[in-house]
Amino acid sequence: MNPIDAQGIAKGLTVLTDPMDISLYIHGNRQTMVLFEMSGCPFCQDFQPAFWDFAEKYLKGYELLRVLLDDDRNPLWERYQIEAVPTVILFAKGEIMARLDSELGVGLTPWQLDAFANCF
User: Fold this and answer.
1) Residue 90: inside a domain, yes or no?
2) Can you give the pLDDT at residue 60?
3) What CATH number has the domain bearing residue 38?
4) Please, is 102 exposed, middle or buried when counting C-beta atoms within 10 Å of its C-beta (0-12, 13-18, 19+)?
C-alpha cells in the first residue's frame, strides 16, 4: 500500500479542491487517474485503501489526483456527470478513457476496481 502521510493522504497523490485546477492535469501527455470524493464520506474513506493498492498495482507512471467535491455547487459534479462518490475516472489528453461510478448509498468495492483494470 502507498505510504500515507500524517494527514491520511497517500504520498505521490495530488489533492485538488479548486475545480479549475483539474484541467492543468488531465490535458497533459500523461494518463491521469482521478478519484472524486467528499471529505467525511464513509464510502470514500472505506474505498481509499483499495484504491491505493490498485494504484500501486496498475497505475505506475500515471498521474494520480484526488478531487474533493465537498461543495454541492462544484461544477465538476455536472461536467463529469458524477452522481455519487467515490467515482474514479481515467483521462488521457483531456478525454475520458474509462470510468468507475459509485452507486449512491453503496460506494465501490475492491472487486469493482479489479474489473475496472480490464478497461485500460
Assistant:
1) yes
2) 83
3) 3.40.30.10
4) buried
